């Protein structure tokens, strides 16, 4: 069984033939070679596979590639532009928001979803938004600071 | 984990879905967000030959404000429900429960119709819909029927939906008890599924509805609590025998005695918020 899909990832249009059972995260990693999106628990608990589908955070281990046919995806590889880090990436760098880095792509993608509809979140709102993303290194404190740092950068960019 | 081999179709109208359901019978499953179905397919607990994706049908996503009820399309996501102001005004427990399901990414794609069709005893919707006196709109090639929520959940992963039928909407009546309602839960920290969830909808001096999920294999209304509240009992007295009428589940998250205790605690929390 095969199905044709056309999926736009980070602005590039990909046409591929896939088995309908192919999970979106495997499509990204194995078909497109975009290995920045990680596979952790594979049960939509840990959040490291988080990407954006039509602008909304999605755990890509829990969607089939065929369901994303015709959609726009953004992965961690699509966050930096023209060699400039995305403010969230810069924030994680500045505030040391990672140790091993395994959860970081998912953390950044879910934080981007949060900041897209709440540009000035409170610490509590940030922690709430991270409820579906696990970090086993940092204890979350630096991740929260990194997102606050990014929110600040994005605010300054808007008012500049 | 890779799901088993399956064929996939995405019709763009309800009639096409219904005739596929009719023709394929139990060889197919409906998929919307996939957040209940894909995990059970990965575990080989379900191995359908065909998937019918219903997310390409706009009318199934609508949340409609009618004169005496609000109808929530089966494909409305938890996130869309959580943001809906009409529901917040007429049945606040619905938006509260929606915002407590899973996490932001799960709520973005998981749907109410998928959740109730799956009927996980630890899901959040059952208690809320039981307390709301909701009804479930179901279609097939034979026509449409509306099932009272009290007849809908029939056991663990078992509902009144028959082979070849499709849940199209959930109807929430606009009532005084729904306008004064809440949902509280004690959740499993990783999955956010309810170890105990309690929904309470009370019209002061009128009807009271109190329902639980997570407590027993089938979500249920605790009619003893309801009667006591309607008879004017205080919360402590009304909840003294919480969940006495059901067989309380026991698992590695919570043994039955502890779960039963939690049910009473969460019933008090919920009732304190609405009385």
Q: Count structural domains of chain A.
A: 2
Number of helices of chain B: 13
> Which homologous superfamily in CATH is the superfamily of the largest domain in chain A?
Beta-grasp domain
Hey, roughly how much beta strand do the residues of chain A contain? 15-25%
CATH topology of the largest domain in chain B: Uridine Diphospho-n-acetylenolpyruvylglucosamine Reductase, domain 3
Mean pLDDT of chain A: 97
The unreliable regions of chain A are none
The CATH architecture of the largest domain in chain B can be given as 2-Layer Sandwich
Q: Between the first and last Cα atoms of chain B, what is the distance in angstroms? A: 47 Å
Largest sheet of chain A: 5 strands, mixed
> Residue ranges of chain B: pLDDT <50 for 5 or more in a row?
none
Q: How many individual domains of chain B?
A: 3
The number of distinct β-strands of chain A equals 5
- So what's the overall shape of chain A? globular
CATH architecture of the largest domain in chain A, please?
Answer: Roll
Helix/sheet category of chain A: alpha+beta
Secondary structure category of chain B: alpha+beta
Largest sheet: number of strands, sense, barrel closure of chain B: 5 strands, antiparallel
H and E string of chain A = EEHEEEHHHH
The portion of residues assigned to helices of chain B is 25-40%
